[in-house]
Design brief:
alpha/beta
């Protein structure tokens, strides 16, 4: 008898909870502010963009965002008026993403982000120029060049001591888990599930004019050591003139949106 009574109490509690929630949702969905958010939400949603695969290469996609109507309502409830600044979003993800294609090689970022990135061969003068001018870049380092205090992003470029350098990057930095591909590191980079990156946009003292005349969003530029600082400045000014942002490589290839 006691068992049946307890079962009855539980059943009533579950029914009460379900009924109360249903009433609350009904009242919420008929609230003018809630309805206003629901009607306008499509204007603020951003669709995902799938990664584009072409043979052995991939261009990263982009995440999207969708208005969370209920959370946005509670965020605006105090003011009882629609204000897009108080919208709350959920992230949406592309069906075909970079994560599904980590065996592919990235030659450029998604053009929609309006970014470019520099990869630097290790050259102290060039590195100091970027740091002193607060310009983001990613540096190819080996064990001898690694520094836990380097303000630029560091990319593991040591074949012989790959695992040891990887441990240092994990311990002291936000390891971007990127490999700039060459003939020697492809196997270990694929084995370690790194993001595989290459580029044909090489900056040195002989390519400045060609590079300057072909600046475009999504580009990855590798600067060889001993390149004149004055030539690098020329490229940077051309990038800024086109209203593109200079970001580190990990940000360029990321599918996150700002």
């Amino acid at each position: 008898m006691k068992l049946f009574r307890n079962i009855g109490i539980i059943a009533i509690a579950i029914f009460s909870f379900f009924y109360t929630e249903k009433i609350a949702n009904y009242m919420l969905e008929n609230n003018k502010l809630y309805q206003s958010i629901e009607e306008k939400s499509e204007n603020y949603n951003i669709k995902t963009i799938d990664a584009v695969v072409n043979g052995e290469y991939v261009i990263p996609g982009l995440n999207g965002k969708k208005v969370n109507i209920k959370d946005s309502y509670y965020n605006m409830k105090e003011f009882d008026d629609f204000n897009s600044l108080y919208l709350i979003y959920d992230t949406t993800y592309p069906e075909n993403s970079l994560e599904n294609n980590k065996d592919k090689i990235i030659k450029m970022g998604n053009k929609e982000k309006n970014n470019v990135a520099f990869i630097l061969e290790y050259d102290k003068n060039i590195i100091d120029f970027f740091i002193n001018n607060n310009i983001d870049a990613s540096v190819l380092v080996d064990m001898s060049a690694f520094s836990k205090d380097n303000k630029l992003e560091q990319i593991n470029n040591d074949i012989k001591n790959f695992n040891n350098l990887e441990s240092l990057l994990n311990k002291y930095t936000s390891n971007p888990n990127i490999c700039f591909l060459n003939k020697e590191n492809e196997n270990i980079c694929k084995e370690k599930q790194k993001y595989l990156v290459t580029t044909d946009k090489i900056i040195n003292n002989n390519t400045i004019i060609t590079i300057k005349n072909s600046i475009s969003s999504g580009s990855i530029y590798k600067i060889e050591k001993n390149t004149n600082i004055s030539d690098i400045k020329l490229i940077i000014n051309s990038i800024l003139y086109k209203d593109l942002d200079i970001v580190r490589l990990s940000e360029l290839i990321s599918e996150e949106i700002s």
